Amino acid sequence: MRKLPSQKRSRVRVQHILAATRTLICNIEGHDIARVTTAHIAEAADVSVGSLYQYFSNVESIFLALYEELVDPIQEVLEEFDSAKMLSMPVDKFFDSFNRSMTSRGPNREFVFAMQQATKVYPALVEAETLHSEYLADKIAGFLRHFGSTWPMPKLKRLALYMFYLDYGTWYYRQRYLPEDAEIFEWELETLNTFLTRAFNEPGND
Predict the structure, then answer these.
(1) Would you say 179 and 127 are in contact if contact means Cβ atoms under 8 Å apart?
(2) Lowest mean pLDDT: which of 61-75, 97-111, 122-136, 152-166?
(3) CA-CA distance, 99 to 192, in Å (whole number)?
């Protein structure tokens, strides 16, 4: 993003552009993100291309802003559970609540599919995703260590990254087979809880 608008009217305009882009990429045939141009986005948002460039330098910067919207709810969960109140909960209750919060705050599936395709087009999104996954891994590894896991921190981080990309793959499963949300939600929880349990019940060697 070229600049962060300080005026309310400008902030509303930015959110309108992002919302229009989100709708556009969720409905484009085959999620062919490479076809999306600033002209397409400007038309979808009913603004001029010049107005678009007041806030975003190119299409990639718009997708970076959308990626922030995608991961903001996840980071909010991480911060929420990294508190004295949450960390004082019994371990089983903590991770069950944590996993449910993480899986239930996911965005619209079409939006996720579109953003996954965008990572194949824009390298900056890959970098942003890497930073996000490492931040998430640090947080989850810290939670596991707090509750008594004896695994070395590097192994705990690898476990957290594995769970992150396992969830990433789950979205491809959703796209291909369109399962019922309730069913895949419970399967995700069971899988996450199984791996987390191993971090407490098995000795760990880095």
Answers:
(1) no
(2) 97-111
(3) 7
Compute the distance between CA of residue 71 and CA of residue 143 in angstroms, rounded to an integer. 19
What b/e sequence results for 152-174 when a residue is b if at least 16 CB atoms lie within 10 Å of its CB, and e otherwise?
Answer: ebebbbebbbebbeeeeebbeeb
Average pLDDT, the chain: 88
**Packed helices 109-118 and 153-177: angle between N→C axes, nearest 10 degrees:** 110
To the nearest whole percent, how much of the chain has pLDDT over 90? 61
Chain-centre distance for alpha carbon 188: 15
Q: Tell me which of 3-7, 25-29, 74-78, 120-124 is least confident.
A: 3-7
**Nearest by Cα to 69 from 6, 118, 31:** 118
CA distance 57 to 135: 27
Length of the chain: 206
CA distance 60 to 38: 10
**CB neighbours of residue 20 within 10 Å:** 19
List the single range of 150-154, 155-159, 173-177 with lowest mean pLDDT: 173-177
